[in-house]
Amino acid sequence: RMATGERAGLLKGEDMKAEQLALRRREREKLAAMDAEMMGQGAETVYRDRKGRKLDMLQEMMRQQDLAKGKKVAKEAEAFDWGTGAVQKREVEARAEEMAKIAEAPFARTADDKDMNDYLKSQIREGDPMAAAMMRKQRERAAKEGGPGGKPQYRGPAPPPNRYGIAPGYRWDGVDRGNGWERKLLAYKAGKAARAEKA
């Protein structure tokens, strides 16, 4: 016999099946005869820390979970600090201030609400005869603040077209210093469009 209790050697299928059934029946009887307490039925859960030490109570485990959560929040804050630039941080702070301001404001707004009136005045509407003056004012304000719209604009001759539609300006003077691939691509696209229009 083998260590598992099965017979060794060449066996018929029926003999093997009968032997397996007998082994299973004996295992079930052995388990049924065992004491339930010995088997761990109704036993309390043992909580352990990372190093395998038993924790005295559930509160200790909860404390460790809170600690881990705090570390996770700190890591996320650090990742935000490292992953964003000064402008993005200022934008987030400005957005948070704006939201706090909105939360403090009364729900019902009246006609003499200064913030709402300033916002509505700053909007440029289609068909407004003063729209050009408003746009100029906004550009001047942006130039003073140094925002993305406040960068100097290119005022030279018309630049060659490019597939991204990037206008020359603060970083690029509009001179194509490439190997001519961009020009060939645009010529091919224009020819393709002309052929499609002709057909």
UniProtKB/TrEMBL annotation:
UniProt-annotated stretches for the region Disordered: 132-165
PANTHER family: BUD13 HOMOLOG
One Pfam family recorded for the sequence: Bud13
Membrane spanning residue stretches: none
Cellular component terms per the entry's GO annotation: RES complex; U2-type spliceosomal complex
Family: Belongs to the CWC26 family.
GO biological process: mRNA splicing, via spliceosome
Sample GO molecular function, one term: RNA binding
Domain of life: Eukaryota
InterPro entries: Bud13, CWC26_splicing_factor
Protein name (database record): BUD13 homolog
